[in-house]
Amino acid sequence: MAQLPITLRRYRPADEDAAIELWRRTWQVSYPAIDFSARLEWWRQRWRNELVPSATITVAEMNARMVGFVTVDPINLDLDQIVVAPEAWGSGVAAILVAEAKRISPKGLDLHVNKDNVRAIRFYQKQDFVICGEAMNWRSGAPVHKMSWRP
After folding, report:
1. Residue 123 CB neighbour total at 10 angstroms
2. Which among 73, 80, 82, 129 could disulfide-bond with 124, CB atoms 3.0 to 4.6 Å apart, if both were Cys?
3. Calpha distance 110→130 (Å, rounded)
């Protein structure tokens, strides 16, 4: 993907379908053995019932097209989702979204990342997150690292 200006804006309800499809497509590239299309209704319910009501959601666009988003709950410091379109990996979108998440939640951020997602772990470490614990994802049962950033 050519390097284009990245713009950020607040999530709007009309973005729901594009955000969920981006989420599905990105996870499908990261974990090709799992059929994420079969989970679309579950994702839609999680989006509507868990993330939209409690998180500040910021959308990243290139050329007026959604290429990423981040969901942050500054009350509990939770960075639940950071999603970047695979074709935009390496373009700086993820770093811009993390910087925005830090602006939204200046006291700190906590996240969980699958232990087998080495690329994401390295990225978060470059963004000054540190591994501070281990757990199991209560939804999938996958082992995860808890990572935190504090100013």
Report:
1. 18
2. 129
3. 10
CATH code, residues 6-149: 3.40.630.30
Q: What is the pLDDT of residues 38-60, one digit of tens each?
A: 788 888 998 999 999 999 999 99
The kind and range of the H/E element at 129 are: none
Q: What is the pLDDT of residues 24-43, one digit of tens each?
A: 888 777 777 777 777 888 88
Return the domain boundaries, the chain: 6-149
pLDDT tens for each residue of 98-110: 999 999 999 999 9
Strands 65-73 and 78-84: antiparallel
| Cross-strand pairs, 111 | 147
User: Which one-letter amino acid corresponds to residue 137?
Assistant: N
**72 C-beta neighbours (distance < 10 Å), count:** 27
The answer for residues whose C-beta is within 8 angstroms of residue 94's C-beta and 6 or more apart is 68, 82, 84, 123
